[in-house]
Amino acid sequence: MSGWPSGLRRYVQVVVSSGGVGSNPTSDKKTDLDSVPDQCNRKWQTRSSLRTVWKTQLSVPTQFYTMSSYTLTYFPVKGRCGALKMMLADNGQQLKENLVSIEDWMKGDLKGSCLFGQLPKLEDGDLVLYQSNAMLRHLGRKHDAYGKTVCEASRIDMMNDSVEDLRLKYIKMIYQEYDTGKEAYCKDLPNHLKPFECILSKSKSGFLVGEKISFADYNLFDLLLNHKTLCSTCLDAFPALKSYVDKIAARPKVKALLECESFKKLPINGNGKQ
Ligand code: GTS
Q: Which InterPro entries does the record cross-reference, listed alphabetically (predicted)?
């Protein structure tokens, strides 16, 4: 475990007590929300050992997307699922969320049922996936966010692997050495941002690879938002990264998700550090 229990437990208690778990047993029914502005629809229900706390429903007219039955099981944090949610939102996809409290997780049954003993878990019809980067790739393939050619796909993989390298450093600092290591981490951060700045400053499209946004872009964007929270000035020396973040944040459906209360109130990390 990444070391998040206490902060997460506090958060779960707040969510559960304020919403009344189990108060809406019929909430499993999917509905189309074809009109904006309110993109989020909070629903509550008890579901075996899980607690379904909210669904993000998206506002694109249904003729523009194929309805998939994505279900995400995860803790009540943005954590490793921010990018995935942004990609689904941007593609007008519905996502049903099973939010798992730390108390339920500690019981062990769910952990025991997970292939690698960890969450997130993504279900797409009969397909069950673990590993957040495999999920991003799967969604990238399905929603045309994995490049136009084999070479583009390989470069997208390369970029995503570099995002993962930085995410792992970030997670280590957050969960293991926040108090003692944050300053050194922020000081060293420019060295890790520089390659991305270099790529983006040469990019004609403004994305990491090719002409279109890819799953690696959502992943980098999500991680850059985390870093802006960690250190508000961290992009000041990186104009390409700065305009990249602004540009993705301004995509209407990404913007709507970022402004959605249910999404906003999720902590970035499970230990309350950010
Ligand atoms: N490589 C995995 C992925 O990318 O999905 C890592 C998943 C992971 O670390 N999950 C943590 C977990 O299940 C939660 S979080 O770090 O993503 O917030 N921890 C609980 C446990 O028992 O290990």
A: Glutathione-S-Trfase_C-like, Glutathione-S-Trfase_C_sf, Glutathione_S-Trfase, Glutathione_S-Trfase_N, GST_C, GST_pi, GST_superfamily, Thioredoxin-like_sf
